[in-house]
Design goal:
Distance between the termini: 25 Å
Strand order of the largest sheet: 1-13-22-29-24-25
Oligomer: single chain
Helix content: under 10%
Structural class: mainly beta
Strand content: 35-45%
Length: about 475
Amino acid sequence: AVKQKGGGRYIFSNSPETITDDYVADYESGPRNWIMRNGGLEEGVYTLALYHHTKSDYEITIDAEFYAETDTTITFTRFGLGKPIGEWTGINIYAEYIGNNIDGTTYLKYDFANLPYTVTIPAGERVWLTDIYNVLYSNREYPTIGGSEGETPVFGMMDFIIQSGVADVNLMGYRDDYNSPNFNWNGDASYVFENHHKGVADSLPETNAELWFEVSDGMADQSKLTGKVFNVRNPFGKNLANVGEGHWYTHINPQSDTWTGDAGNSIEFDMFSLKYADEKKREFYGSNIPESEKDAVWRFDTIRTQIRTNKVRAEENAAGLMILHEEEGEVDPNFKPNDFLHETELSMYEPNIQGAYSNLLAVSLGNYGVVEKYRINVTNTGSKSWYLCYEMDAIAHMVIECNGKYRISYPEKEGGTSLKTKRRYALGVIEPNTTTTIEFSVVLPTADQGGVGNQLYIRDKLTYPKEEGEKIIF
């Protein structure tokens, strides 16, 4: 079984991902919205992740306000914030956040002299993320997006502890700074539909799974270690040996992806549920819905829709993926935003969404920034040693860790387009006549396509460094 770690909360800011003029808090006109508001955060452990970019021809600063409702003390324990190098996947920033090099010297950690860093904020005052950054990164300028920086995003992850007090953690973008006379301190931060999401999960960003297998001398080289996966569609389990190449899938909502949904090989319960308080949600219900059935919290999970209106159309984006777009028009009287998928009346949608593209109503989740940890126990009843190996089949840039070593799994490309690519890793030796325990983890840091195939198998010898062989990371 996959269990979420708990122990704190995960604040995830990725909506709107593309910052337009409407989401620049000191723009000369317009709504001057904020990106995200999280009020009343009490004592506890938190992780904050943010990822935003823009097409604007002027520079925008993405900042966060740590506002003290009462006298508050906050300690930052891990930190990474900046612009991705090369790919937009931000592996360089993730290396700084985890405090470890990735792929040897390819992506380097940053030696923070001031971590952990503690700030005390009197009631009614605030500290800015820009201020914290300038203390921690003594030799860098705070990153911006847009203008001369182009469309390259800003990505950040940080861990902090609210030691005492109650704080609001709010995100916004601005052109000049928060002292600008145009700065809208009351900017609205409601959910806007654009196939990205924001919210707070009731767990720190980590899942844990423990698996048991048995091997023997009579098994063939490259034998797969298979089992069952359990998800909403398959509560009694789906035998992986009967599905495709036998991979189990993570980092994807099977309700939004027709292939894993139909195949039944997604574990699903690794996916974090995000909740976002938003009073404006009540405005999107149809006229027949009584007030008693309305609420003001968006829940982005595997069992609900992601939409604000039934006036949506399916359209192919630049990457060749079908996504939904909102259209003008009054909603159906019986429409409920963010409704349970099994209660959604498809008849209120246009024909292609009633049929081929009904999956687009589901929330497109990727579990970005969530470390998925595995503890593998293998009992070897034979007299020969085996290598425990792991195959990842992904279109994304992933980070895999084993025995304190971090490696990046990257996709092959064709004409600039990422292709689904298999990468193989040797995780450790399974000694004879004993039970061996090996732990490893995988993470999709951000900004890449979800849907990761996972498979364990055994080898009697390794073919590394041949391209088709296993990379040794133990």
